[in-house]
ABC transporter ATP-binding protein
Amino acid sequence: MAMVEVAQLAKKYDGGFEALKGVDLSIAEGEILALLGPNGAGKTTLISIICGLVTPTGGQVRVGGHDILADYRSTRRLIGLVPQEINLEPFEKVLNTVRFSRGLFGLKRDDALIEDVLRRLSLWDKRDTPIRALSGGMKRRVLIAKALAHEPKVLFLDEPTAGVDVELRRDMWEIVAGLKAQGTTIILTTHYIEEAEAIADRIGVINRGRILLVEDKHSLMTRMGRKELRVLLDSPLETLPAALEGRGLELLDDGRLLVHSYDSTAERSGIARLMADLAAEGIAVRDVATRQSSLEEIFVSMVHNEEDEA
């Protein structure tokens, strides 16, 4: 079942700038979608429209079956938003800050639920601490707690780990995994490609207001990722022997490393032939390793190709 449905969504500002150009997107209940794109690609505009903060100029958005414009209150009640900017009342205590967010939705006080949220985010021990006394990472946890206080079905995380250290970032990943296990639908925008690679079910790529693709993470990496065979030679080569020319091989590291790129989905990789030819040429091999293209390399290549075609 689709929890979020976006159809032909457009946003054009008064000056003529088109932030979104007919975006179509469907997000299933309980999945994690990572939305990647360079600055100005339209990520924040898309999130802001779905969350009811920006009015679209065309298209339709439904959350949990409700239209975001015709049934604003119902859709907003289903959504939690963790913004990119940390904007918290510095002198208020953590507990009161999170309680207040629940009250904004007209919900009854629920101390047990708030305690559970704070414990899950490792904030319970900080419940009486003023916001100004918290570290940047703990303030981000408070933002997530505020977004969860009204028990949303959909959680938007706009660059949730920007500016936090690696350890805290991995803690955040565990928190997100726990929310997914409870059935929460999560849409994540991030500049940290490894974040998407670590926790997302599907990857969406947006650039210049258009969705370039939305695909299962693993199938995307299999379909578009290339592998490298990296052969460490026993003795350096000054040049490639004639028998090895014309195959796109690279000599690196002063002739000690031979790199062979190949399509991991192709019927033949060419590895067996390469190793046989190396032996026939009397070239001794010290070590062999393979390397898969990362999601970051795939993303950069895709965006550059799209810009070259524009």
